[in-house]
Amino acid sequence: MPPPAVTSACRQNGALLLLATCAGLGVANVYYLQPGLSLVQAEFSASPERVGWVPTLTQIGYALGMLLLAPLGDVVPRRRLILVKAVLLVLALLAAGISPGLGWLLIASVAVGLLGSIGQDFVPIAAQLSPDEQRGRTVGTVTTGLLTGILLSRTLGGWVAESLGWRAMQFLAAGLMLGVMVIAWRTVPNLPPASRSRYGALIASLWTFWRQHRTLRLAVVSQALLASTLGAFWSTLALVLAAPPFHLGAGVAGTYGIAGAAGALAAPWFGRLNDRRGPLPAIRLGCALVIVAFLGMEILPSSLLSLAVGAVVFDLGVMAALVSHQTVVNGLDPQARSRLNGLLMTGAMVGVAAGAAIGSAAWASAGTLGLYGFAAAAGMAALAVSFLNPPPGEQPHD
Fold this sequence. Notes:
Largest sheet: none
Distance between the termini: 52 Å
CATH superfamily: MFS general substrate transporter like domains
Structural class: mainly alpha
Shape: globular
Radius of gyration: 20 Å
């Protein structure tokens, strides 16, 4: 028989893997529709600009969910919160699947985004259960599940949309969330809430944390800039591939999620780098990878290979910075991890929503030159922000 320490480690790793799986399946709901946007456009006879509001409003809903719902994890037992949000998310996905028109779908998309914040509820749980010296690796592992869910959701969404239609993916997503409910019920410990504050005071404390921690503000701004590249690239990829010179469908657009997911697999490595050397090296490396990826896609001839390599490199860069930023904010105040993580991810999702809107406009007006140019500029701005402060872990308070 293995020694008790080995058995305990295996159980911890198994629980961590389940948390990562739930995080990925939870957040994936925000992105399932993106590779099938051309099918939505055709069914509702809508313009590219109008269809572009589907991912934009979903991301806005996600940002609101991180701002208004994620803080509840500090005052409500997290398992109960996850189960309630999962039930409501199932209903929102079913509403999206039966949408009779684009207006109905836009309303349902806001609800899906709002409740899709359930994926981020698993990050503070992992941070709370891990010792300080392993928090980077633990957060990195859950972030791997989170980002893999985001990226592979486009693969699954594209395949299902091309084979069965975009509506079928919404029904399948509802079924997957029922599975998340079962896993969460059996895996998430019934941890007591970290605070007894009322909801109004809880939301008001967000402003206090924002003013108190300069490192939090810089982390939010930097991650929002990097996240805007995710919104710009992935929300327009289906339209880019449907246009000349590619003329390809939703299935191919979804397959590119596999390329992006390859970058997410490095999240635990960046977490360990953060544990050893602090967050700033990984943040700057991430910014550099984003810049190089989009400049490369602009300079190199348009091809499926250059798109795939670019997707791997820039997703790797965004992930590298996210792991470090999440580790930083989860270490600022153990009693407020859900609120602090919520603030960070609110900024990131605002960035994704803004990137989706700007990317759609840039693509419509200037093609890939405008799209990739915007993304490279966002990476440069994030890199500049990283030089405004010493390593965040050294100065958590102002």
